[in-house]
Amino acid sequence: MRAARSILVALVTVAASPAGVSADDVISFRRHVWPILKRHCYGCHSGEKPEGKLSLATAASIRSGGDTGPLLVPGKPGRSLLIQMISGEEPSMPPKGRPLSRAKIDVLKRWILQGGKIDSVAPVAEPKVVIPVEYTHAPAMTAVAFSPDGQRIACACRSEVVVVTTSGTGIPLRLPTRSDLLTHVEFSADGKMLLAAGGTPSRFGEVCVFSVADGKRVLARRVSGDTLFRGGFAPDGKRVALGGADGAVYVIPLDEKSAVRRIELHSDWVVDVAWTPDGKKLITAGRDKATKVASVQTGKLLRTVDSSPERVSSVVTDGVFAVSAGKSRALIGYQLDVALQNISVTGAGNGAKPITRRNQYAKNFEGQPGEVIDIAISGNRKAIAVAGAASEVRVYTVADRKRTATVKNVRVPVYCVALNRNASLLAVGSRDGYLEVFRLPKAERTLSRIPVPMKKTVGSR
Ligand code: HEC
């Protein structure tokens, strides 16, 4: 997921600080309070469906508060909901990440003590997502997926999903989102819906679902205050699990209301999540270099199956093995039943001490020629394709770890790969914005195109 990573790093905004407020200053809402709310709260408490029905978008909506009522009792910080929610040992807000600093809480308290006036709210422009009619530079392709029948391919091209036919005929379907960067696309098992996830750094994560037949967006749900990474549909098709920039996995029901679950597992970005086919476990890969297995039911970590010397980028599973890889070029399969021996999946057994050793369940594939950025698993979960910095994509059988195909001379770096149901087709998306399709195992190239419309280049300047 280096694509997202490098773009994200460049985009992450610098935190506004409440510095320079001295003890006896008059607190100005606009100058002192607003920057804090905007930085730490606005992402979830704004937009069409603000969390807790609390919108911080206008002075009036701040005054009226959310579900529970007014945010503040003027002159009485201790009795104000706003302060109650952000203070204490484990403050309720923000619900994840670091609590507000003492200095910031102090600013909010003093503002309320001084009457809690709202002089004005600087309107926060939604970070503009510009989707050009025609591009001058092709956007990097950050995710790619086959429809279950193999006839179509969805490509994540920065803020939009472009659906093309595998044969290359017809006019691509363009599905715009409001995310600055999409990190994941996937068709539902029946091929009727298309999931696109991503977000805008430091603002929001977003999950969109489109109806493939007419391109209509049927769901757009904002989750967390930061971009979401890769993951996938639960086997029941009703939820998705996606990695978060805050070390949590987000399990998001595909409706507007049901509660989102956060499963805290990693100390850094969770860059990929895979469901076991029975829907009971999640395998996760983190920028903290770990590959982990967690129980969906309890949300508990079952086992950290490995710690890589380098960051891990991608993970897939067929239910028997989990396979992960990343910068270290080692592609490793983890036999789940052995790795999880003596660990109860349903119990709350925090004290359960696994006795299995890594060398009993970790099985190495051959070494990879370059950093691995993405691994794709076929629809029947028998084959995987492994790609990244090197100019070849390799295809393996999961069960015996044997290489079955090698696709050479692909455009590098590859940011994303996909296999169709029986691994007879491979789609490769690259940083330079190309989609290439190969027929396997012979590796004949059947398509090579930039899926977004490009400006016709004019000969003279
Ligand atoms: C990651 C998203 C997120 C962020 C960031 C966030 N909140 Fe919330 N907030 C929620 C959700 C979800 C709820 C509703 C559920 C709950 O009460 O826990 C909520 C509810 C609230 C409520 C109660 C609303 C009501 O009337 O019931 C208050 C007050 C609140 N948040 C304040 C804040 C403040 C202040 C910040 C910034 C310091 C903040 N929140 C940041 C997600 C968020």
Q: How does this model look, in words?
A:
The chain has 461 residues and is mainly beta. The chain is 12% helix and 35% strand. The chain folds into two domains: 100 residues, no CATH class; 309 residues, YVTN repeat-like/Quinoprotein amine dehydrogenase (Methylamine Dehydrogenase, Chain H). It has seven helices and 28 strands. A four-stranded antiparallel β-sheet has the order 1-2-3-4, with no helix packed on it. Strand 1 and strand 2 form a beta hairpin. The radius of gyration is 24 Å and the shape is globular. The site of heme C has 25 residues, from helix 4.
Distance between the termini: 36 Å
CA-based gyration radius:
24 Å
Number of strands: 28
User: How many separate domains make up the residues?
Assistant: 2
**Largest sheet, described in full?**
4 strands, antiparallel
Low-confidence stretches: 1-19, 344-349
- Kindly report the name of the CATH homologous superfamily of the largest domain: YVTN repeat-like/Quinoprotein amine dehydrogenase
